[in-house]
TrEMBL record:
InterPro entries on file: Polysacc_synth, PolySynth_Transporter
Single GO cellular component term: membrane
Record flagged with keyword Glycosyltransferase: no
Keywords in alphabetical order: Membrane, Transmembrane, Transmembrane helix
Location(s) in or outside the cell: Membrane
Superkingdom to which the source organism belongs: Bacteria
Organism: Liquorilactobacillus sucicola DSM 21376 = JCM 15457
Topology in membrane: Multi-pass membrane protein
Transmembrane feature ranges: 7-27, 47-64, 85-105, 111-133, 140-158, 164-183, 204-223, 246-266, 287-311, 317-337, 349-365, 371-393, 414-432, 438-457
Protein name as annotated: Oligosaccharide translocase
Length: 476
């Protein structure tokens, strides 16, 4: 039951981390307008490149390495400090490069300086340690407090379009503070260390091997916003970000399993329990499929009317973007299971890297012509095609290691139930005026309809749920 407890901790935090900013979004979009929102989105997309190059893939690498050695406290302590010192050095270099680059930027200097708090926050982020030892409670509770505090600050100090810098400062500062609050727990987690025996640079090349896919991932996470800002205007960068925020909020319910399962699978693989690793993959893929399909169809069904109601009429283009981007919920959900829950913990770094590099290449090839001809919709379409390419490649790479038919045994049933749910909810959404009560009605109807259809279609996950409930009642 530890895996499920950690899943709900992490899923709860991921949702909270997305929901709390969304609580402020209707307020922020109306106070700062599309210009202020666009400036934040565009400048943040630029700063994320420096965060990426400073982190050099250490979050994923550190999570996995800690999972390998967590049974030996002394070895875990040495591993932590070696990786963290290396990260501090690379972040320092990255920040220096940022300051040099700032001299060649022609606009948004002040905003970029404030955004650089994210680089510093990345330098002190040690959440990968607690993920590696499967201790999610600490990160959830402490960061929850910090994020709630940031919301109070936003409503207190952000009052006019001229407060865009204050808004960025609160977001970046809360991230920095949230990461800092994890450090006091080190005293109880680690033991003493012999500094002279640390071998810091032994981790450089292995971390670098995970840095390459991180670059590729960042390309199709951030490049779209950057290209929209350059080719069309910062406003459209903001539109893309707002659509992406909602999609990623919904997606976080599914991708939370990746953070939880990576150390779990890595530890099983380290012990040579290959059958157990494959069983984790089958169960996780089925569980995630059961979640992502209704999330995809459900979001698409309400998106058109939800966006202008939630963000304001200035953000009407966000609705159609959300309909298109909803598909990535399914694709990323699947690739998260195969990539982060199977390829990475079983040390198949080359296959994982190749998949995300392929996604980046597809995104780069599609981005400029798609944005040129179709603007915001083109950027979203490039994202969807990129994620589809990643998923297909990863499934193809594991076709000889697992039974793909067993992996996707229930997917057709989920798709059928999701499609019927979409038709019903979308029809209702176009017939009634959209407000908070209609949103609750549509979401409730979608959930009940999907669950009812599952009971009729009888996917095997229902038997798994029944077994887990029996085990829980019997104390197993």
């Amino acid at each position: 039951m530890k895996v499920f407890r950690n899943y709900f901790y992490n899923a709860g935090y991921q949702v909270l981390a997305m929901i709390l900013p969304l609580i402020t979004s209707p307020y922020i979009t109306r106070v700062l307008g599309k210009s202020g929102v666009g400036i934040n989105s565009y400048t943040n997309s630029l700063i994320q490149y420096f965060v990426l190059f400073g982190s050099i893939g250490i979050s994923l690498y550190g999570n996995r390495e800690i999972a390998f050695v967590r049974d030996d406290r002394e070895k875990m302590t040495a591993t932590f400090w070696e990786i963290q010192i290396l990260k501090t050095l690379t972040i320092t270099v990255s920040y220096a490069v940022f300051l040099i680059s700032l001299m060649f930027m022609h606009r948004y200097h002040t905003y970029m300086l404030i955004q650089s708090l994210y680089i510093l926050a990345a330098g002190i982020d040690i959440s990968w340690l607690y993920m590696g030892i499967e201790d999610f409670k600490k990160t959830v509770l402490r960061n929850t407090f910090v994020k709630v505090f940031s919301i109070i600050l936003i409503f207190t100090f952000v009052k006019t379009p001229n407060d865009t810098g204050i808004y960025i400062l609160i977001l970046g500062g809360s991230t920095l503070l949230g990461n800092a609050t994890l450090w006091p727990y080190l005293r109880k987690t680690l033991t003493s260390v012999k500094w002279s025996k640390l071998n810091i640079f032994q981790h450089f090349y292995p971390a670098l091997s995970l840095f390459i896919p991180q670059i590729a991932i960042q390309v199709y996470l951030v490049l779209n916003k950057s290209m929209l800002g350059i080719m069309i205007g910062a406003d459209y960068s903001g539109f893309y970000e707002k659509a992406d925020n909602i999609v990623k909020l919904v997606l976080s319910l599914a991708t939370a399993t990746g953070t939880v399962m990576l150390p779990h699978v890595a530890n099983a693989f380290h012990r040579g329990e290959r059958e157990r690793v494959n069983r984790y993959l089958y169960d996780s893929f089925d569980f995630v499929s059961c979640l992502v399909v209704p999330l995809t169809f459900g979001l698409a069904a309400i998106a058109l009317n939800f966006a202008p109601w939630f963000y304001g009429k200035q953000f009407t283009p966000v609705g159609s973007a959300m309909i298109l981007e909803a598909a990535v919920i399914t694709f990323i959900g699947w690739s998260n299971v195969v990539g982060q829950q199977y390829l990475l913990p079983t040390n198949q770094i080359k296959s994982y890297s190749s998949s995300v590099i392929l996604g980046a290449v597809v995104n780069i090839i599609c981005n400029v012509p798609f944005i040129y001809f179709w603007g915001l919709s083109g950027a979203v379409a490039a994202t969807v095609l990129s994620e589809l390419a990643v998923t297909i490649y990863q499934l193809w790479k594991i076709r000889k290691q697992v039974e793909l038919k067993r992996l996707a045994v229930n997917v057709p049933k989920y798709l059928l139930a999701g499609l019927i749910m979409f038709i019903a909810v979308f029809k209702i959404s176009t017939m009634i005026r959209f407000n908070f009560m209609s949103l609750i009605l549509e979401v409730t109807l979608g959930i009940l309809l999907y669950l009812g259809l599952l009971l009729l279609l009888k996917p095997t996950i229902l038997d798994r749920v029944k077994q887990l409930l029996r085990d829980r009642r019997s104390g197993g």
